[in-house]
Amino acid sequence: MNWDDTTDETAADRLVGASADREDQAVEAALRPKDLDEFIGQEKVREQLDLVLRAARARGATADHVLLSGAPGLGKTTLSMIIAAEMGAPIRITSGPAIQHAGDLAAILSSLQEGEVFFLDEIHRMSRPAEEMLYMAMEDFRVDVIVGKGPGATAIPLELPPFTLVGATTRAGLLPPPLRDRFGFTAHMEFYEPAELQRVIHRSAHLLDVEIGAEGAAEIAGRSRGTPRIANRLLRRVRDYAQVKADGIITREIAAAALKVYEVDARGLDRLDRGVLEALLKLFGGGPVGLSTLAVAVGEERETVEEVAEPFLVREGLLARTPRGRVATPAAWAHLGLTPPQRTMGGNGQGDLFGA
Prior knowledge:
The protein has helices at residues 3-12, 22-31, 43-59, 76-87, 102-110, 128-140, 177-180, 194-207, 214-221, 228-245, 252-261, 271-283, 291-298, 302-315, 330-335, 350-353; strands at residues 66-69, 91-95, 117-121, 142-147, 154-159, 164-169, 185-188, 319-322, 325-328. The chain is α/β, with parallel strands linked by helices. The protein folds into three domains: 42-188, 3-Layer(aba) Sandwich (Rossmann fold); 194-261, Helicase, Ruva Protein, domain 3 (Orthogonal Bundle), CATH 1.10.8; 271-353, Orthogonal Bundle (Arc Repressor Mutant, subunit A), CATH 1.10.10. The longest helix is centred in the middle third of the chain and has 18 residues, at 228-245.
Protein backbone atom coordinates (compact mmCIF):
# COMPACT_ATOMS: atom_id res chain seq x y z
CA MET A 1 0.00 0.00 0.00
CA ASN A 2 1.42 3.39 -0.92
CA TRP A 3 1.53 6.52 1.19
CA ASP A 4 -1.45 8.19 -0.48
CA ASP A 5 -3.62 5.09 -0.12
CA THR A 6 -2.89 4.92 3.61
CA THR A 7 -3.77 8.54 4.18
CA ASP A 8 -6.92 8.46 2.04
CA GLU A 9 -8.15 5.28 3.72
CA THR A 10 -7.71 6.78 7.17
CA ALA A 11 -9.40 10.04 6.17
CA ALA A 12 -12.35 8.23 4.62
CA ASP A 13 -13.03 6.42 7.91
CA ARG A 14 -13.50 9.68 9.82
CA LEU A 15 -16.88 11.32 10.24
CA VAL A 16 -15.18 14.71 9.93
CA GLY A 17 -12.82 13.60 7.17
CA ALA A 18 -13.23 15.56 3.95
CA SER A 19 -12.67 12.56 1.65
CA ALA A 20 -15.83 11.23 0.01
CA ASP A 21 -16.89 7.61 0.49
CA ARG A 22 -19.50 5.90 -1.67
CA GLU A 23 -22.36 7.04 0.54
CA ASP A 24 -21.15 10.63 0.32
CA GLN A 25 -20.87 10.42 -3.46
CA ALA A 26 -24.42 9.11 -3.78
CA VAL A 27 -25.87 11.76 -1.48
CA GLU A 28 -23.82 14.55 -3.06
CA ALA A 29 -25.23 13.62 -6.46
CA ALA A 30 -28.73 14.20 -5.10
CA LEU A 31 -27.88 17.40 -3.23
CA ARG A 32 -25.57 18.94 -5.85
CA PRO A 33 -26.68 22.39 -7.12
CA LYS A 34 -27.30 22.55 -10.85
CA ASP A 35 -26.21 26.12 -11.66
CA LEU A 36 -24.10 28.98 -10.29
CA ASP A 37 -27.12 30.80 -8.83
CA GLU A 38 -27.90 27.77 -6.69
CA PHE A 39 -24.30 27.23 -5.58
CA ILE A 40 -23.75 28.50 -2.02
CA GLY A 41 -20.54 30.23 -0.94
CA GLN A 42 -17.30 30.96 -2.84
CA GLU A 43 -18.70 34.35 -3.90
CA LYS A 44 -15.58 35.62 -5.69
CA VAL A 45 -15.04 32.37 -7.54
CA ARG A 46 -18.67 32.26 -8.64
CA GLU A 47 -18.60 35.86 -9.85
CA GLN A 48 -15.38 35.40 -11.81
CA LEU A 49 -16.44 32.05 -13.27
CA ASP A 50 -19.80 33.48 -14.30
CA LEU A 51 -18.02 36.16 -16.34
CA VAL A 52 -15.78 33.56 -18.01
CA LEU A 53 -18.72 31.35 -18.99
CA ARG A 54 -20.97 34.17 -20.15
CA ALA A 55 -18.22 35.60 -22.35
CA ALA A 56 -17.57 32.18 -23.89
CA ARG A 57 -21.26 31.67 -24.64
CA ALA A 58 -21.48 35.13 -26.21
CA ARG A 59 -18.56 34.30 -28.51
CA GLY A 60 -19.99 30.90 -29.32
CA ALA A 61 -16.72 29.36 -28.20
CA THR A 62 -15.67 26.75 -25.68
CA ALA A 63 -14.77 28.10 -22.25
CA ASP A 64 -11.13 28.55 -21.22
CA HIS A 65 -9.49 25.73 -19.30
CA VAL A 66 -10.22 26.03 -15.56
CA LEU A 67 -8.05 25.06 -12.58
CA LEU A 68 -9.78 24.69 -9.20
CA SER A 69 -7.63 24.23 -6.10
CA GLY A 70 -8.54 23.81 -2.46
CA ALA A 71 -9.16 21.29 0.28
CA PRO A 72 -11.40 18.25 -0.34
CA GLY A 73 -15.14 18.71 0.06
CA LEU A 74 -15.40 22.39 -0.91
CA GLY A 75 -17.22 21.92 -4.22
CA LYS A 76 -14.64 21.47 -6.99
CA THR A 77 -16.48 18.54 -8.60
CA THR A 78 -19.79 20.36 -8.25
CA LEU A 79 -18.39 23.43 -10.00
CA SER A 80 -17.07 21.30 -12.85
CA MET A 81 -20.56 19.91 -13.42
CA ILE A 82 -22.03 23.39 -13.24
CA ILE A 83 -19.54 24.57 -15.88
CA ALA A 84 -20.75 21.81 -18.19
CA ALA A 85 -24.39 22.64 -17.47
CA GLU A 86 -23.89 26.37 -18.02
CA MET A 87 -22.15 25.68 -21.34
CA GLY A 88 -24.78 23.13 -22.38
CA ALA A 89 -22.04 20.53 -22.86
CA PRO A 90 -21.51 16.92 -21.76
CA ILE A 91 -18.88 16.17 -19.12
CA ARG A 92 -16.25 13.44 -18.91
CA ILE A 93 -14.90 12.68 -15.43
CA THR A 94 -11.69 10.92 -14.43
CA SER A 95 -8.81 11.40 -11.98
CA GLY A 96 -5.06 11.81 -12.11
CA PRO A 97 -4.22 8.44 -10.50
CA ALA A 98 -6.34 6.69 -13.17
CA ILE A 99 -4.10 8.07 -15.93
CA GLN A 100 -0.78 6.28 -15.55
CA HIS A 101 0.21 6.17 -19.22
CA ALA A 102 0.08 8.66 -22.07
CA GLY A 103 -2.04 6.17 -23.99
CA ASP A 104 -4.72 6.32 -21.28
CA LEU A 105 -5.00 10.07 -21.76
CA ALA A 106 -4.86 9.85 -25.57
CA ALA A 107 -7.79 7.41 -25.55
CA ILE A 108 -9.91 9.83 -23.53
CA LEU A 109 -8.94 12.94 -25.47
CA SER A 110 -9.54 11.34 -28.85
CA SER A 111 -13.10 10.44 -27.86
CA LEU A 112 -14.12 13.90 -26.62
CA GLN A 113 -16.88 15.75 -28.44
CA GLU A 114 -16.57 19.37 -29.48
CA GLY A 115 -17.15 21.66 -26.50
CA GLU A 116 -17.14 18.78 -24.00
CA VAL A 117 -15.94 19.44 -20.46
CA PHE A 118 -13.16 17.11 -19.34
CA PHE A 119 -12.93 17.05 -15.52
CA LEU A 120 -9.60 15.74 -14.23
CA ASP A 121 -9.65 15.40 -10.45
CA GLU A 122 -6.40 15.28 -8.46
CA ILE A 123 -4.60 16.43 -11.59
CA HIS A 124 -1.30 16.70 -9.70
CA ARG A 125 -1.18 12.89 -9.39
CA MET A 126 -1.14 12.26 -13.14
CA SER A 127 1.91 10.51 -14.61
CA ARG A 128 4.61 12.67 -16.17
CA PRO A 129 4.28 11.27 -19.74
CA ALA A 130 0.52 11.93 -19.67
CA GLU A 131 1.14 15.39 -18.24
CA GLU A 132 3.45 16.28 -21.11
CA MET A 133 0.88 15.07 -23.64
CA LEU A 134 -1.72 17.25 -21.94
CA TYR A 135 0.35 20.39 -22.61
CA MET A 136 -0.11 20.11 -26.37
CA ALA A 137 -3.74 19.01 -26.06
CA MET A 138 -4.65 22.06 -23.97
CA GLU A 139 -2.76 24.57 -26.10
CA ASP A 140 -3.05 23.27 -29.67
CA PHE A 141 -5.91 20.74 -29.38
CA ARG A 142 -3.61 18.11 -30.80
CA VAL A 143 -1.75 15.07 -29.54
CA ASP A 144 1.02 13.01 -31.10
CA VAL A 145 0.27 9.30 -31.00
CA ILE A 146 3.42 7.15 -31.11
CA VAL A 147 3.13 4.12 -33.37
CA GLY A 148 5.79 1.41 -33.18
CA LYS A 149 8.84 1.09 -30.96
CA GLY A 150 12.52 1.91 -31.11
CA PRO A 151 14.14 3.66 -34.09
CA GLY A 152 11.15 2.84 -36.29
CA ALA A 153 8.60 4.58 -34.04
CA THR A 154 6.52 7.24 -35.74
CA ALA A 155 4.58 10.15 -34.22
CA ILE A 156 1.18 10.58 -35.86
CA PRO A 157 -0.52 13.93 -35.07
CA LEU A 158 -4.14 13.60 -34.02
CA GLU A 159 -6.34 16.68 -34.15
CA LEU A 160 -8.76 17.15 -31.24
CA PRO A 161 -12.03 19.05 -31.15
CA PRO A 162 -12.01 22.14 -28.89
CA PHE A 163 -12.77 21.14 -25.30
CA THR A 164 -12.61 22.63 -21.82
CA LEU A 165 -10.34 20.99 -19.27
CA VAL A 166 -11.35 21.51 -15.65
CA GLY A 167 -8.51 20.42 -13.39
CA ALA A 168 -8.98 20.01 -9.65
CA THR A 169 -6.22 19.68 -7.10
CA THR A 170 -5.81 19.70 -3.35
CA ARG A 171 -2.08 20.47 -3.73
CA ALA A 172 -1.64 23.21 -6.30
CA GLY A 173 2.03 23.58 -5.38
CA LEU A 174 2.77 20.19 -6.93
CA LEU A 175 1.61 21.29 -10.38
CA PRO A 176 4.52 22.18 -12.69
CA PRO A 177 4.45 25.79 -13.96
CA PRO A 178 4.02 24.76 -17.64
CA LEU A 179 0.76 23.03 -16.72
CA ARG A 180 -0.53 25.82 -14.48
CA ASP A 181 0.21 28.42 -17.16
CA ARG A 182 -2.04 26.68 -19.68
CA PHE A 183 -5.18 27.27 -17.62
CA GLY A 184 -7.05 30.39 -18.67
CA PHE A 185 -8.82 30.71 -15.31
CA THR A 186 -7.58 29.57 -11.91
CA ALA A 187 -9.48 29.75 -8.65
CA HIS A 188 -8.74 28.79 -5.07
CA MET A 189 -11.67 27.43 -3.04
CA GLU A 190 -11.78 28.81 0.51
CA PHE A 191 -13.19 27.16 3.62
CA TYR A 192 -16.78 28.16 4.37
CA GLU A 193 -17.96 30.49 7.10
CA PRO A 194 -20.49 29.08 9.62
CA ALA A 195 -23.28 31.24 8.17
CA GLU A 196 -22.65 29.80 4.70
CA LEU A 197 -22.63 26.27 6.08
CA GLN A 198 -25.97 26.94 7.77
CA ARG A 199 -27.42 27.80 4.35
CA VAL A 200 -25.94 24.58 2.95
CA ILE A 201 -27.45 22.57 5.81
CA HIS A 202 -30.90 24.15 5.46
CA ARG A 203 -30.88 23.47 1.71
CA SER A 204 -29.77 19.86 2.20
CA ALA A 205 -32.29 19.31 4.99
CA HIS A 206 -35.06 20.52 2.68
CA LEU A 207 -33.98 18.13 -0.08
CA LEU A 208 -33.67 15.25 2.40
CA ASP A 209 -37.07 16.10 3.92
CA VAL A 210 -35.56 16.70 7.34
CA GLU A 211 -37.05 19.25 9.73
CA ILE A 212 -34.33 21.37 11.32
CA GLY A 213 -34.36 24.59 13.32
CA ALA A 214 -31.99 27.51 12.92
CA GLU A 215 -30.16 26.64 16.15
CA GLY A 216 -29.82 23.00 15.13
CA ALA A 217 -28.29 24.03 11.80
CA ALA A 218 -25.93 26.41 13.60
CA GLU A 219 -24.80 23.63 15.95
CA ILE A 220 -23.96 21.34 13.03
CA ALA A 221 -22.32 24.14 11.04
CA GLY A 222 -20.02 25.01 13.93
CA ARG A 223 -18.66 21.46 13.97
CA SER A 224 -18.28 21.03 10.19
CA ARG A 225 -14.71 22.32 9.86
CA GLY A 226 -15.66 24.84 7.19
CA THR A 227 -16.49 22.07 4.70
CA PRO A 228 -19.89 21.47 3.05
CA ARG A 229 -19.23 17.75 2.56
CA ILE A 230 -18.66 17.33 6.29
CA ALA A 231 -21.73 19.45 7.06
CA ASN A 232 -23.92 17.19 4.92
CA ARG A 233 -22.42 14.06 6.48
CA LEU A 234 -23.02 15.33 10.02
CA LEU A 235 -26.55 16.33 9.04
CA ARG A 236 -27.29 12.75 7.99
CA ARG A 237 -25.93 11.32 11.22
CA VAL A 238 -27.87 13.82 13.32
CA ARG A 239 -30.98 13.00 11.28
CA ASP A 240 -30.54 9.32 12.18
CA TYR A 241 -30.21 10.18 15.87
CA ALA A 242 -33.26 12.45 15.77
CA GLN A 243 -35.37 9.74 14.14
CA VAL A 244 -34.36 7.07 16.65
CA LYS A 245 -33.98 9.04 19.87
CA ALA A 246 -36.43 11.93 19.38
CA ASP A 247 -39.32 13.06 17.20
CA GLY A 248 -37.24 13.53 14.05
CA ILE A 249 -36.88 17.30 14.48
CA ILE A 250 -33.31 18.56 14.77
CA THR A 251 -32.85 21.14 17.51
CA ARG A 252 -29.64 22.44 19.03
CA GLU A 253 -29.94 19.97 21.91
CA ILE A 254 -30.57 17.03 19.59
CA ALA A 255 -27.66 18.00 17.33
CA ALA A 256 -25.29 18.37 20.29
CA ALA A 257 -26.39 15.04 21.80
CA ALA A 258 -26.04 13.24 18.46
CA LEU A 259 -22.56 14.59 17.74
CA LYS A 260 -21.47 13.71 21.26
CA VAL A 261 -22.34 10.11 20.43
CA TYR A 262 -20.22 10.35 17.28
CA GLU A 263 -17.34 11.98 19.25
CA VAL A 264 -17.33 15.26 17.32
CA ASP A 265 -16.82 18.09 19.78
CA ALA A 266 -17.93 21.71 19.66
CA ARG A 267 -15.02 22.78 17.46
CA GLY A 268 -15.26 19.82 15.10
CA LEU A 269 -12.42 17.79 16.62
CA ASP A 270 -12.83 14.02 16.58
CA ARG A 271 -11.08 11.19 18.40
CA LEU A 272 -7.87 11.44 16.36
CA ASP A 273 -7.60 15.21 16.74
CA ARG A 274 -8.15 15.09 20.49
CA GLY A 275 -5.78 12.13 20.81
CA VAL A 276 -3.00 14.17 19.21
CA LEU A 277 -3.68 17.16 21.45
CA GLU A 278 -3.97 15.06 24.63
CA ALA A 279 -0.69 13.29 23.91
CA LEU A 280 1.03 16.59 23.18
CA LEU A 281 -0.30 18.21 26.36
CA LYS A 282 -0.35 15.38 28.87
CA LEU A 283 2.69 13.37 27.83
CA PHE A 284 4.99 16.10 26.57
CA GLY A 285 3.86 19.16 28.49
CA GLY A 286 2.77 20.99 25.36
CA GLY A 287 5.97 20.33 23.40
CA PRO A 288 7.99 20.85 21.42
CA VAL A 289 7.92 17.21 20.36
CA GLY A 290 8.93 15.52 17.13
CA LEU A 291 6.31 14.24 14.72
CA SER A 292 7.48 10.62 14.86
CA THR A 293 7.42 10.60 18.67
CA LEU A 294 3.96 12.16 18.71
CA ALA A 295 2.67 9.60 16.19
CA VAL A 296 3.96 6.70 18.31
CA ALA A 297 2.27 8.18 21.39
CA VAL A 298 -1.05 8.38 19.54
CA GLY A 299 -0.68 4.93 18.00
CA GLU A 300 -0.98 6.20 14.42
CA GLU A 301 1.29 6.36 11.40
CA ARG A 302 3.46 9.47 11.09
CA GLU A 303 1.77 10.35 7.77
CA THR A 304 -1.69 10.05 9.31
CA VAL A 305 -0.88 12.56 12.03
CA GLU A 306 0.85 14.93 9.62
CA GLU A 307 -1.65 14.84 6.74
CA VAL A 308 -4.97 13.98 8.41
CA ALA A 309 -4.97 15.55 11.88
CA GLU A 310 -2.44 18.38 11.85
CA PRO A 311 -3.81 20.63 9.06
CA PHE A 312 -7.06 21.27 10.91
CA LEU A 313 -5.37 21.66 14.29
CA VAL A 314 -2.97 24.22 12.82
CA ARG A 315 -5.79 26.06 11.04
CA GLU A 316 -7.75 26.22 14.29
CA GLY A 317 -4.75 27.66 16.14
CA LEU A 318 -4.47 24.67 18.46
CA LEU A 319 -1.08 23.42 17.31
CA ALA A 320 2.00 25.02 15.81
CA ARG A 321 4.77 23.49 13.71
CA THR A 322 8.17 24.79 14.73
CA PRO A 323 11.77 23.86 13.75
CA ARG A 324 12.10 22.07 17.10
CA GLY A 325 8.86 20.11 16.82
CA ARG A 326 5.11 20.38 17.41
CA VAL A 327 3.95 22.83 20.06
CA ALA A 328 0.53 23.25 21.63
CA THR A 329 -0.91 26.77 21.76
CA PRO A 330 -2.71 28.30 24.74
CA ALA A 331 -5.98 27.67 22.88
CA ALA A 332 -5.26 23.92 22.95
CA TRP A 333 -4.86 23.93 26.73
CA ALA A 334 -8.08 25.91 27.08
CA HIS A 335 -10.02 23.66 24.70
CA LEU A 336 -9.17 20.52 26.69
CA GLY A 337 -9.71 22.30 29.99
CA LEU A 338 -6.11 21.84 31.13
CA THR A 339 -3.73 24.26 32.83
CA PRO A 340 -0.44 24.86 31.02
CA PRO A 341 2.79 24.49 33.01
CA GLN A 342 4.32 27.68 34.41
CA ARG A 343 7.12 28.10 31.91
CA THR A 344 7.89 29.76 28.63
CA MET A 345 6.55 27.60 25.81
CA GLY A 346 9.32 25.32 24.54
CA GLY A 347 11.85 26.77 26.97
CA ASN A 348 12.66 23.64 28.99
CA GLY A 349 14.80 21.87 26.42
CA GLN A 350 12.13 19.31 25.51
CA GLY A 351 12.89 19.97 21.87
CA ASP A 352 16.24 18.23 22.37
CA LEU A 353 14.59 15.22 24.02
CA PHE A 354 11.70 14.85 21.61
CA GLY A 355 13.11 16.35 18.44
CA ALA A 356 11.83 15.59 14.98
